[in-house]
């Protein structure tokens, strides 16, 4: 056998492989979250739902925050307070948007975070994206226009809010990466602070707006949906993302979750009986294709 054969590239480190696998599972869970959350919103308004969801999350994670050392708690507060406010804005846009559009639309439009992350990384972390990434961004925006029925001016309020959430998500990924790599706070403690900030912000806004915080619903469907979102889509997902951003660059984290819209659209069609037009499926295809093409173009970090 000739000895000049090209050597196989070295395998990625175990921490990176574990990070990739965990993030793909998060993508699946987050994909289903749109349909589940839309079902919960039938029983309770947006701000009250967010206060309940993240209040329960904070209660579950409070022991981890209390067990942390004093320096770790201070670090969790320094990073968690600004990140929590950013996440509160993201979830407000996402959830209000979800109340005014299809769950399948929400899952697909939020995936634009994948292509918004490289430009955000350039602005916030001084890492310039390639020309191919800019091209993919244009393709994704075209897909979003097709998915939402045409030109941006014709988009629904819900679609526009989901698009805003996707932009904020890109900023959040970069900010979390920068802060998580500089802070000694454990992932659970950091997630606890973030959840507490979201819960307080949602409850405060709900109390400030009369009629937006009725008595808690007694429907079991609401509580089962909330439990699924708290345990799977919030506690597990936030902890994994905070941990993964210590081992992977922000763009890789964003891109590895590019399967989220496919899971979300599939779940919305099967669970909620939603449907997309031919034009909508074309737009969805462009968004997903651009996400995975961007993954191939970007270095692994």
TrEMBL record:
Coiled-coil region(s): none
UniProt topology in membrane: Multi-pass membrane protein
Primary residence: membrane
Keywords: Cell membrane, Membrane, Transmembrane, Transmembrane helix
TM segment ranges: 21-37, 43-68, 80-100, 106-125, 132-155, 187-209, 221-241, 253-272, 278-295
Locations listed in the record: Cell membrane
Signal peptide positions on this chain: none
Domain EamA intervals: 21-148, 158-295
The protein's name: DMT family transporter
Organism name: Acidovorax lacteus
């Amino acid at each position: 056998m000739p000895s000049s054969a090209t050597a196989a590239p070295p395998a990625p480190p175990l921490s990176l492989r574990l990070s990739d696998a965990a993030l793909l599972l998060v993508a699946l869970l987050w994909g289903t979250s749109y349909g589940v959350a839309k079902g919960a919103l039938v029983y309770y308004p947006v701000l009250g739902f967010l206060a309940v969801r993240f209040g329960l999350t904070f209660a579950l994670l409070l022991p981890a925050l209390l067990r942390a050392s004093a320096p770790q708690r201070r670090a969790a507060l320094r990073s968690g307070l600004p990140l929590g406010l950013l996440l509160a804005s993201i979830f407000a846009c996402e959830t209000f948007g979800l109340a005014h559009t299809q769950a399948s639309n929400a899952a697909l439009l939020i995936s634009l975070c994948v292509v918004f992350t490289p430009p955000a990384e350039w602005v916030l972390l001084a890492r310039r994206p390639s020309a191919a990434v800019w091209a993919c961004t244009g393709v994704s925006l075209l897909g979003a226009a097709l998915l939402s029925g045409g030109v941006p001016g014709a988009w629904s309020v819900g679609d526009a809010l989901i698009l805003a959430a996707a932009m904020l998500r890109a900023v959040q990924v970069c900010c979390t990466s920068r802060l998580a790599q500089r802070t000694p706070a454990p992932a659970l403690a950091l997630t606890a602070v973030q959840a507490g900030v979201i819960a307080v912000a949602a409850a405060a806004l709900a109390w400030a707006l009369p009629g937006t915080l009725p008595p808690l619903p007694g429907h079991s469907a609401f509580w089962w949906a909330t439990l699924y979102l708290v345990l799977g889509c919030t506690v597990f997902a936030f902890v994994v993302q905070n941990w993964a951003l210590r081992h992977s660059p922000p763009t890789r984290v964003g891109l590895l979750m590019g399967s989220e819209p496919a899971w979300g659209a599939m779940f919305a069609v099967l669970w909620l009986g939603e449907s997309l037009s031919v034009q909508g499926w074309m737009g969805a295809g462009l968004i997903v294709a651009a996400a995975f093409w961007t993954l191939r173009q970007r270095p692994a970090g």
